[in-house]
Amino acid sequence: MDTKNFKVNAGNSTINWTGRKVTGAHNGTIGVKEGNFTFGEGKTVSGKFAIDTRTIRILDIEDTETNTQFANHLASDDFFNSEMFPEAYFEITHAEPGDENLYYVKGDLTIKGITHPIDTSLHIVTTNDTAVLKTKIIVDRTKFNIKFRSSNFFTNLGDTLIYNNFDLHIHLVAEAY
């Protein structure tokens, strides 16, 4: 295959998140802003995508007032500080092809202006016109200065403790250009 460039279709792409605490878990979505990927000879892959932190939604809380309070808290400085940092980024720094459209990927994740390396596997299916990329990234929020109710920084939290890791289930649809 010749080198091909793909642009992420934000409207057709999804990111689902799950965060856990002692008493259960919460889940929701967060929007993809944009992204580009390049696939080349020898199954090389490069690319980057941006997440719009202002679009975080909570799916498991039905009460409108509680949902709004929680969403506003996630957008605050306790978590993503969306006003100051409206975007988070993931950029592939290295990808090794594996079997069955699987790639072993090293990348840089940037949240709140702080960048840390992340290792993950990326499932990629391409046609002439589209590419579908799927991965799960486990994020240690404390590496990105998200300390709220973390046992790394606070004691005696009891059942208010929020676990440090949260999951991002990423499904990107990109179109050739």
From TrEMBL:
Pfam family, one: YceI
Record domain Lipid/polyisoprenoid-binding YceI-like: where: 5-175
Protein name, entry field: Lipid-binding protein
